[in-house]
């Protein structure tokens, strides 16, 4: 990697940023991010970034301070005369608010794109957006990567027979279908009804999972309600084993306990969001190499289309 590149990490997931830097054979730039007593954030680059391509690695999961920190890192880089500013957002917060699905509601994903653009970002690299159309909210390039690049090799390494991919809801049908086609296996779909946000009233499995090794695939696991209920329904329908794969392990509130006490034999997530505590029920696979390869391709002006293939 040439000397015109600077890698910067916010405080949200420094461990992932360090792994990305290691794959690129680089060091993370020295940055100070002090907080005032009232929680206000300040950003200061300790090294010159004038004329450099600055890649800022910062997922924007809750709390909102992670978003504010990213915006301040972008603003500081712009004011320090960086040539290009690229936001590397392994997890794009507010992506679940991608449309006006009821009257008088916000569209958080669009607001996020406006904020990033106003701050001065030139490009966004992200992974497994909750809704593909969010790319169209930007007037700048967006590289949308997929966790299937790491999950599919993992599934193949398990050498499971009689495999069935399950989508926990109808919204994830396209994703699950892509996995099923790549693995040449059966597909089943969960149909759910919500009582309110993060509360699933009922869920039924459409498809045959009897005597099959089931892998439930989704983009996000928050409290785990949908995933755990889907796993329970699969077991009730006679599934042999139930595993689950999610790109982003938010695991809010009692999410980890819910997984540990569920019919899910193993939950596999990526390191886009740091795991809150170790768990025998949860395994983490890294996307650092994939992110590093895309950063390298952006700098060397080579194609990254192969990273979008399943």
Give me some keywords for this one.
310 residues; 7-stranded mixed β-sheet; 26% strand
What is the compact description of this entry?
With 310 residues, the protein is α/β, with parallel strands linked by helices. The chain has 8 helices and 14 strands.
Molecular structure report:
There is one protein chain. The protein is of the alpha/beta class and 310 residues long. It has two domains: 5-146 and 288-308, Rossmann fold; 148-285, Rossmann fold. Helix content is 29%, strand content 26%. It is built from eight helices and 14 strands. Strands 10-9-8-11-12-13-14 form a seven-stranded mixed beta sheet, sandwiched between helices. β11, α6 (225-236) and β12 form a beta-alpha-beta unit. α1 (14-24) packs across α8 (288-300).
Number of helices: 8
Rg, alpha carbons: 20 Å
Q: How many beta-strand runs?
A: 14
In the CATH hierarchy, the third-tier topology of the largest domain is known as Rossmann fold
Number of domains: 2
Q: So what's the overall shape? A: globular
Under CATH at level 1, the class of the largest domain stands as: Alpha Beta
Strand content: 25-35%
Distance between the termini: 27 Å
The biggest beta sheet is recorded as: 7 strands, mixed
Query: Could you estimate the helical fraction of the residues in percent?
Result: 25-40%
The structural class is alpha/beta
Order of helices and strands: EHEEEHEHEEHEHEEEHEHEEH
Which architecture of the largest domain does the CATH hierarchy give at level 2?
3-Layer(aba) Sandwich
Q: Unreliable stretches, pLDDT < 50, 5 or more residues? A: none
Mean pLDDT: 94
Largest beta sheet: strand ordering: 10-9-8-11-12-13-14
């Amino acid at each position: 990697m040439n000397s015109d590149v600077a890698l910067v990490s916010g405080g949200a997931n420094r461990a992932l940023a360090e792994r990305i830097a290691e794959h690129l054979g680089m060091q993370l730039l020295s940055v100070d991010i002090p907080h005032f007593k009232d929680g206000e954030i300040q950003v200061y680059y300790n090294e010159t970034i004038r004329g450099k391509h600055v890649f800022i690695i910062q997922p924007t999961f809750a709390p909102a301070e992670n978003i504010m920190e990213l915006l301040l890192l972008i603003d500081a880089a712009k004011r320090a005369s960086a040539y290009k500013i690229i936001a590397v957002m392994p997890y794009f917060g507010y992506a679940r608010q991608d449309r006006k699905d009821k009257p008088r509601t916000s569209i958080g994903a669009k607001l996020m794109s406006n904020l990033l653009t106003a701050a001065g970002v030139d490009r966004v690299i992200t992974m497994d957006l909750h809704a593909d159309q969010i790319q169209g909210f930007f007037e700048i390039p967006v590289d949308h990567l997929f966790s299937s690049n790491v999950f599919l090799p993992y599934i193949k390494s398990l050498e499971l027979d009689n495999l069935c991919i399950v989508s926990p809801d109808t919204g994830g049908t396209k994703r699950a279908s892509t996995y099923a086609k790549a693995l040449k296996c059966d597909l089943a779909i969960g149909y759910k009804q919500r009582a309110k946000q993060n509360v699933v009233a009922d869920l039924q499995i459409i498809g045959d999972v009897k005597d099959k090794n089931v892998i439930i695939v989704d983009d996000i696991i928050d409290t785990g309600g949908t995933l755990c209920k889907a796993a329970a329904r699969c077991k009730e329908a006679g599934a042999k084993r139930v595993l689950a794969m999610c790109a982003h392990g938010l695991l809010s509130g009692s999410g980890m306990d819910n997984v540990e006490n569920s019919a899910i034999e193993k939950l596999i997530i990526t390191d886009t969001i740091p795991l809150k505590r170790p768990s025998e029920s949860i395994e983490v696979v890294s996307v650092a190499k994939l992110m590093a390869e895309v950063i390298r391709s952006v700098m060397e002006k080579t194609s990254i289309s192969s990273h979008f293939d399943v």
